Amino acid sequence: MSGMIDWGTAVQTGARLVRPGPQVSPHEARAVVMELRELSAMAEGHVREFTRMDVPPSTQPATVVDRPGWIKANVEGFRVVLEPLVDQLSQRRTVPTGPVGIAADIVGPRVTGMQMGAILAYMASRVLGQYELFLPPDPSGDAPTGRLTLVAPNIVHVEQELSVDQRDFRLWVCLHEETHRAQFTAVPWLRAYVQEQMTQFLLASDISPTELFDRIKDAAEAVADAVRGGESSLIDAIQTPAQREILNRLTAVMTLVEGHGDFVMDAVGPEVVPSVAQIRAKFSSRRGGGSKVDKTMRRLLGIDLKMKQYAEGSRFVRRVHTEIGMAGFNRVWTSPETLPTMAEISDPSLWIRRVGLPSLNGEVLSLEKPNGTES
User: Contact, 176 vs 264, CB < 8 A?
Assistant: First the structure.
């Protein structure tokens, strides 16, 4: 049986449909790439110093790509995540035999590949950068397990649209993405935890194998989008209490890591990004704008939910940091058991009370402010 998704069709469709980026000369393009690599390396030091996380030094500079390059990279990542699951699900599937089965096995993956490619073409013009968790395995074992990727044309497009300081904006973006690298390299269990939750979610359905297959085919991007916190397309596939519980855990951890990234990029300080307040104000305003079509696509793909996660996660991190300091907040990375639940993200005092900090006499301190207000 061939795969559920024709990955080559996904890449070809996405590259064909993606909008071109801003027009720059070859010299300007090279200069952007060089500066982004330089600033990502600079961001690494700032993030390590501010977060106090034990981040291993980066062994390679950030990968700077154009929009088709981002599509190709993400298809490779999806393939790493989805193909093992497809193999497991294939064993449950009842496949028609004869010409009908053969035709379905050929046409289905191509259609799914086209669907994935169309969605990626839309996303490719929006994403500024990401830390790619899932890469094809390196036979030599020398390559890092993740990769920091920056989408140059999108960064240039947004900085032009917002009329902000170019260098400040580029460093600001690098700070966010470098924070994700810090999370997934300094916390050795985090990557496996996220992948395990995704796998459990897909395998915990009580619907028929054929229907499950069809749903995954129709929501191929939504499955992978779980890594980035989206849930609007996935919610229709939830059939069991077990799946709801898994999705809540996955949503909570991604809200935490996205909010932590947003918190760090703003909190590193004006001495690093002098115009950070202006950039944040303009960028936040832009996040809520767009045409009617754009807003509809954001809702359908779960992007609006992701924007909400940025805000909720950032509020959680800011409140915990204010109440118990960076060392106290970093207890969140101790184990899966110290990750916040969605209820605790909404009310950080619950997490502070549950995890707590030992006082000098061994008692557990609750450092919640009397009025419970957020700083």
Answer: yes
DSSP state string for 268-306 = S-TTTSTTHHHHHHHHHHHHT---HHHHHHHHHTTHHHH
pLDDT (tens digit per residue) in 20-58: 989 999 999 999 999 999 999 999 999 999 999 999 988
Separation between Cα atoms, residue 214 and residue 5, nearest integer Å? 11
Displacement of CA 93 from its chain's centroid (Å): 30
Of residues 110 and 140, more confidence is placed in: 110
Give me the torsion for CA of 240, 123, 128, 27, rounded to 10°.
Answer: 160
Confidence at residue 277, expressed as pLDDT on a 0 to 100 scale: 94
**pLDDT, the chain, mean:** 79
Q: Which two tokens stand for residue 227?
A: 């890594």
Count of residues for the chain? 375
Q: What mean pLDDT do residues 143-154 have?
A: 86
| Alpha-carbon distance values, 137 to 219, 350, 352 (Å) | 25, 40, 38
Reference 125, options 262, 224, 22, 26; nearest CA is 22
Phi, psi of 364 (to 5 degrees): -95, 125
Nearest in space to 260 (alpha carbons), one of 308, 314, 307, 312: 314
> Hey, what are 363's tokens?
């008692």
pTM of the model: 0.80
